[in-house]
What we know:
Helices cover 32% and strands 19% of the residues. The protein has 456 residues and is of the alpha/beta class. The strands form 5 sheets. It has a 5-stranded parallel beta sheet with strand order 2-1-3-4-5, with helices on both faces.
Amino acid sequence: MKKKTFYIESLGCKVNQYESDGIAAQLEAHGFSRAGKGSPADICIVNTCAVTARAGMQSRQETRKLIREHPDATVIVTGCHAQTDPEQFKKISGVDHIVCHQDKILIPAYLTREPPEKNLFEFEFRKPEYGNASRFLGFDRPVYGKMTRAYLKIQDGCNQFCTYCIIPYARGASVSMPFDQVMAHVSGLNRQGFKEVILTGIHTGLYGLDLTPETSLTELVKTLDEKQPVDQIRISSIEPHEITDDLIHLARPGHILCDHFHIPLQAGDNGILSRMKRPYSVEQFSEVIHSIHGTLPHAGIGLDVIMGFPGETDKAFENTYKLVADLPVSYLHVFPYSPRKGTPAWHFTPKVPSGTAKKRAALMRELGAQKHQDFITSNQGRILKGLIQNQRDRRTGLLKAVTTNYLTVLIKNEKDAHGNPDSLKGQIVNLKYDQCSDGNGLIGNIVLPPLEHKDS
């Protein structure tokens, strides 16, 4: 009997990628073979994204492309865009199944039933769950993926309902992976050779608030720090008001948490923050950033910023620009505002012309590039801890490392440090760079001082 093949395309965030990797692993465990891009496949799965209008468009484009390339395949669409706007996919000829978010991880179970061709999906499309009906949707086994650093989804959903965001309508209320399961998955990833695990979620800072007994992200990281089931932990993204002093202290040298915080700012004007329904002020945000920097002066601090939100005047933009310019941050992710039908901000006025939003975004990206260069300069010559990646740099062929504070450094002395350079892949090393750039990025060397151990 011919082994069935599948292809899965994941768009959008790391949570989507994690879920796609988990679905793929389950299918492979049942004897399915994963097809490469462009190879024939019996089943095509599209895990869609809805965070922006462009992401939704790309999700539909990818679906149509796979239908053209695999005319005889069973095509399954799931993910946030399929959840918030299933009618868009019902219009696409060739889509066989639209699977709601709650049933996403059940796709492999239905595909592997006997006989598989009969009643492939018996469940019906449902809206996201809220309140007591909400439950965490996870995988029984750790999800490995293909990256050097493993992702672990510990939280899903969101209770914030920012006025511009469609995602709570796609994923429902905040739910958390049970505490003991997090510990088991992290330990399992460590046994598979992963040195770093990235804790991720839709609103990761809400972790534990729905569990019984109630806990928190800080308490989880404290326990990870005490038990050391893996070498290092990174948090993918966290809201400013959820960064506690204890959490910052857990990122000091010798502790498990990486000194890297990715924090959504979105706007640096109190009026716009209020319209966005963001639960902090400019002053509170600034205090958090300075608190991180005061304890960890070389920490990587990244910000998300939205340009062109309805009502953003020239003065409001100037306020955001000045705030970011004055803050000790290391990089920016800048997005022009994308109207999402179904959110309150869809109806907000006055609208900011798209040309104005793009100009503001360009100016903010220039500021971000300067911030990043300043951060690179401030770390030059310092001994940093970095994880050697499994994939070499494509342009130079050199090994590359991602440091705890989120810099990528190419390693030029790999053969001098070890007889077999490939043995370094997936390992944590001390390194430093003296050469800021040669057109290919940061160039550095592995250095010999031992890695710091956990504080007693």
